Records
---
Amino acid sequence: MTDHALQSPSCPDALVALSFFSGAMGLDLGMAQGGIHARLACEVDNTCRQSIAANFPHLPLIGDISQYSAAQIRAAAGMSPSQEIDVVFGGPPCQAFSTAGARRGLDDARGNVFLCFIDRIADLKPRYVVIENVRGLLSMSYPYVPPQLRSQPELMASPRPVRGGALALILERLRDSGYVLSFELYNAANFGAAQIRERVVIIGKRRDSDSTCKVSYLTPTHDEQGRFGLPQWRTFADAVATIPTTENEQHFLPIPPQRLRFYELLKPGQYWKDLPPELWSEAMGKKLHLGGGKTGFYPWALS
């Protein structure tokens, strides 16, 4: 990626967008490819901040979202207090909702950052909101009482955790902030990414005076077998085929030798379960006993 890849064009009609939980700017790059260029990034991870600063030195970068008011965010982005924001997008921390985690959800400090994000959205009032998160968000249990039952004191006194309660609360907060929503579990491979990556995507449109407005669902651009007249899923080899190689330069974090030896035992398309069983405990450590399929551990790219 280059600095100009995400920079907002000089056209006065360019969409105004703000990025939160920016990571290494993967979501930002996808939005930029769709013509939506972030005017500000927000990230706390030091390694990601270094990556953002190196690749996009002219992009304003702030830290912990909970430490910034809406007015401070606007100022950091070089915006006036009344300037319209077209899009706010981001992927709040996945760990609090991941099926591989302890599933404390919104009781976890990282989960609470999700609610802080919604508070900032309510204050900034963008025309559109795009939020992505792990599929575990769909089933995350959390004490939640539907609005129509909140008149019952016994339910409100000690609400029970219900499956999907965290998502229900998030959607309710967004709707109360004035947004019409769609949400769905999408596979990134169906949209041209060289990775099988399922993510919940919430898209919100500010209601304004149009009470009948709706938010469309996304239409896939690729198919695993190339059906429906669509191209087949892209592979990792497709994605990196045109990347130039530069000698004597490292633009990546090296894989530790103790981990690299496990990768060397795998073939394209394999992951940790394809290692010899006697090595599982050593390779995975405490992660071996986590819930879920753990397919993200030691994946070896498809050729």
---
Amino acid sequence: MKWSGEYRIIANDVDANDIVSASGIFRYMQDAANSAMEADGPSYKELYDRGLAFILSRMRMSSYSPIHVHDKVEVQSWACESKGVQWNRCYRILRDGMIVAEAVSVWALCGVQDKKLHRVTEFDFGYRTDDMIELDMPARFKIPEDVEMRLVGERTVEYADIDINGHMNNTHYPDILCSYIGADMRGQRVISLGISYISEAPLGETLKIYSGISDGVYYVRTIRENGQINVEAEIMTEAI
């Protein structure tokens, strides 16, 4: 059973190509997930008040058709069978009954203060569930070793990037990473994006950004000031 909500794309949600960008797609999916949690309980805020927070670990998104301003879309989100410390959730965006984007994600439920990981079996949440979408979601995405990764820039995490947890919100990463793949995104759109969130990027931290390309696939890695990997991503685009 899937949670479903209707959305109307507003002008502020589209990019220079006059379509919803990868980060925009992530935001609609995330809003649907938050709405599903509120409908079924506990909500994200209720969990946070209990000292718990869902932290995104991995996400794989496929986009099949551009989404334009004032499009009316249906966005679905639902929990999937989960085990251990991995909490799975899926998403779909439909327009006129046709799927235009879908994604699978893996989350960790952590203590806000102690960062302790909590197992699925510790809780009996009421989130509605359904079958997992069959997208390629590896156990842990890694950039192939034969891809030459070059330092292409640095970016400092700003106030506008962070969320209630004090680090860069997961929905901000796709558009930021696309700015450093070495290609002009004007006239291009993301059709596939896989991203692993490995460590948090807090306010004020400066990330070093590395990118490479192999067989038409772009790879991006961000490194924190302490040398830890922040995120790794695989991005595929096509001409609009």
---
Amino acid sequence: MIVDVSKKILIVGLGLLGGSYARALKRFGFYISAITKEQSSIDYALNEEIIDEGSTELDKRIIGDADVVIFALYPHVFVEWIEQNQGLLKSGAIITDVTGVKKSIVYKIQEMLRDDVEFIAAHPMAGREVAGVENSTDKMFSGANYIVTPTDKNTPEAISTCLELGRLLGFSNVTTLSPEEHDEMIGFLSQLTHCIAITLMTCNDKENMEKFTGDSFRDLTRIARINDLMWSELFVANKDALLTQMDMFMDKFKELKSMLQAEDIEGMRKIMRHSTQRRALFDKK
């Protein structure tokens, strides 16, 4: 095990993801602390023995004791925290994150960070349509993907530590991408899919449709129940990549529409066969 269980781990932002990290890592015997805004979240986590200690304040001892710090914050809050509070981190600390965009924050944080603290970014590709530590679960990462996005400022030791963290958390696939590759990939696989779900859910407001729907509509719009504050920030932070993916989608949708207008049965069947073949690659093994 690369990550020594004697290391103290601090989670900043004890919500759904932060709480799930805490639950998963606690199983290995790590000492887990947390800093978050709500006292109720700290109380719940302590009562459930998800964490060993926690605070709603910037506790200098808790922060200064942490060997590994996991930031589960909105991107702009994460950047502000580092700007204002990085002096509280211990020398040699490794920090990582769960942020859904990388290019717009990774270089910014690495540039402003002290030389004796290292930031190695990561993105857990997992979530639920609920929020809060009370909905956290150490099973959320099973079958999911975990992406580490190193830069030339990262040491091999920090990269290995972050990769090992993903394995300990229980992710089925742990891999690396550059911040740029990550944002292009996420623009398609995550952000575009949320855009489609939002659009589908709001393009027809006919009443009582919920009484007649089938599972296909429910499955396709599951992620339309969305955190508007977080996702609007993520969309803007990855604007260029997401706009490119939206253009690609609209081009393909127009192609399908043209086939329907022309009653091009063979053309529609061809694109459907291609869809079926491609979809098989995405089934969880």
---
Amino acid sequence: MKAKVWFVSALGGTVLALAAFAGYIITIDPFFHYHRPLSGLAYTIDNSRYQNDGIVKHFQYDTLITGSSMTSNFKTTECDALFGGTSVKTPFHGGTFKEVNDHMEAAILANPNLRTVIRCLDEGNFTQDKDYVNYDGIPYYLYDRNPFNDTEYVWNKNVFMLSDTVLLDTREGRQMTSFDEYLRWAEQYEYGREQVLSYYARPGQGTHEKKLADVERETTLGNIRQNVTKAAREHPEITFYYYFSPYSVCYWDVEVVRPGKLEWYMDLQQTVIEEILTCDNIRLYSFDDNGELTCDLNHYKDPSHYNGEISSLILQWMKDDVGRLTKENYKAYLQRLYEFYGAYDYDSIYTEKEEAK
């Protein structure tokens, strides 16, 4: 009898302890899995793949800014001032089109008030398989609607410690991370020619111009149709502001011109543009033909990543319809790219690098 009583008491105590543990995490909820932030608590937002899903499902907003690290330097305060409404920012560093689109569709499903999406389309991701995801360990148990696998969240020692951190930061007078600050890296790096050229490994000159193969075209169209235009077709009530990430002239030299892929790249862009322009509620922008941007290496920390000032300008440009591609002007835009980057004096960049050694 004593053994039975002890067993029942021990079992009951264990259940109560587990319930208290889970209840504490559910109440604080540092990943916003169950609810929006509790008023007055100093939540730290710094983990995109664990917190972005909860942000789009439980925060109040009508504008979503999302994409790869190219969107990390946007400020939601600037976006709100330009476009009106209330925005949230949910970048995915290294995010593929598939990962970002799945997130965007989760936001659309969760938020009937969503009216505007601002999203970067990384040109280096065009030819990816439509289902490609390049990040291991994505916490899908936070993304689905299955309550049974929430055990990985509510009985997680690290999450318990994060909940403690929220209360500790609150007691010490800290504030919740703003979306202007969230994953913003602009102030963490140096910019300019020296920085960019430190990444600049110039390949040998290609011997002939490559052509976009049929299989590459079909893979690209599959990627764009599933992960870019499908949501727009299904949700005509939402306006999608999409822009191509403006890489520097060094990127064009290393990745496009030197390997003999300029015609390939133009054909690739044309394939993507023509598919996207079939959707009337997508506003597509590109700034690749802005030489004052792409050829001024003071805007870049490496061949592709631009600074916070350019992020601010991109918001302003999209609001003012600067750089918008339409059915009427996109072929002229492609011709400008072909002529400009095809004739650019890349040797001068390489010479300056050698002289800097």
